[in-house]
Amino acid sequence: MRPIRRGPSPIAGDFSPYTQAQAHLVTQLGPYCSYCERRVATQLAVEHIQPKGLPAYAHLIGRWDNYLLACVNCNACKKDKDVVLSDILLPDRDNTSVAFSYQPDGKILPSTQCTQSGMAQHARNTLALTGLDKPSTTHLDPNSRYVALDRVSQRMEAWMVAEEARADIEASPGNNAVRRSAIRTAQGYGFFSIWMTVFQHDPDMRKRLIQAFPGTQDSGCFDPVTTDPVSPAPNPDDLPKGAKI
Question: Residue 147: CB partners within 8 Å, gap ≥ 6?
Answer without folding.
Answer: 139, 140, 141, 153
